[in-house]
């Protein structure tokens, strides 16, 4: 894994926020809100929360999501696709269900990578 240099604005923070605050900030980020818009929303909703460390803490949490191993990520994709398939069949969305089956068949054709360097 290559090391990346962090700017002063993205150094790890010790900002401790409730899961509700972090969750809402994550929603705003994923919806594409600008940093300015998020800062204003934080000031309106939680006047005692410093927006810059709160946004940085949320971004750190989002970046940790990328630390999954490939097997876990593929497993999540398969389970999510299976769940969506079940929901589509329940509501009668058969074209959508067929797309989910197609997606699962693509997962099934992917080569399995075994790391021979791992200790057992």
Please give a structural write-up.
With 120 residues, the chain is mainly α. The chain folds into 2 domains: 10-66; 70-109. 62% of the residues lie in helices and 0% in strands. The protein is built from 5 helices and no strands. Helix 1 crosses helix 3. The longest helix has 22 residues, at 70-91. It is elongated. The chain starts with 18 loop residues before the first helix and ends in an 11-residue tail after the last helix. Mean pLDDT is 83; it is low at 1-11.
Question: How many distinct folded domains?
Answer: 2
The residue-averaged pLDDT reads: 83
Helix tally equals: 5
The SS-based structural class is mainly alpha
Task: Map the helices and strands.
Elements: H1 19-30, H2 35-45, H3 51-64, H4 70-91, H5 94-109
Helix pairs in contact: 1-3, 4-5
Short structural summary:
The chain has helices at residues 19-30, 35-45, 51-64, 70-91, 94-109. It has 120 residues and is mainly α.
List keywords for this structure.
120 residues; mainly alpha; 5 helices; elongated
């Amino acid at each position: 894994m290559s090391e990346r240099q962090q700017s002063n604005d993205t150094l790890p923070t010790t900002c401790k926020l409730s899961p509700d605050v972090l969750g809402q900030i994550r929603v705003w980020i994923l919806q594409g809100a600008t940093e300015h818009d998020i800062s204003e929303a934080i000031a309106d909703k939680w006047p005692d929360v410093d927006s810059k460390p709160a946004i940085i803490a949320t971004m750190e949490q989002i970046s940790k999501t990328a630390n999954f191993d490939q097997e876990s990520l593929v497993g999540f994709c398969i389970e999510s696709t299976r769940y969506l398939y079940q929901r589509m069949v329940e509501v009668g969305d058969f074209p959508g269900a067929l797309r989910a089956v197609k997606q699962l068949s693509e997962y099934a054709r992917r080569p399995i990578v075994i790391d021979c360097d791992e200790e057992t």
